[in-house]
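#lab-general

N.A. 3:47 PM
ok so I finally got the sequence cleaned up, no stray characters, all 160 residues accounted for. can someone with queue access submit it? mine expired

B.Y. 3:52 PM
send it over

N.A. 3:53 PM
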Amino acid sequence: MATDDPRPSQPATPQDETPASSSSTSSSAETSSSAGSTSSSAESTSTSTGSTSSSAESVLLSVSTAATPEDAKNSVIYNCIVVVFQQQGFPTIDDQSARIVWSTIDDNVIIFLGNGIASCITGKGYTCPALAPVFGTLKEMNQVTVVSDLVTGLASLVKP
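B.Y. 4:20 PM
back already:
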């Protein structure tokens, strides 16, 4: 633990370390009670948190819209793509702008991806056509697909 303390360096003891779960609120509460104050800092913290929460709620509501059935379907499709690619040993897809270079994927993996994604989507209550043959064609034609475009394309094929 590096500090700007001018005292000679000493090994840290459990008393010197502040547990991660301790917060400034508990030290503030101790300071307040030792000063004879009857109001606890926890009360003032909850009051300020309440106004912060209300402010955060207003901000987030101003940039949000009501969910549609299409939003739910797109979310299911995207999540299925992410899960199945990860199950096949690919790095986690954490951005819809990621690109899938089909020609670099082994034929057996293409089949597992197509079947896995279709099965996942079907398991969420939607009907989905067979995807393995289509993914195979994308590979044969040396195609690259952006994940967001894959979601959009699949959404047009997947029925509620």
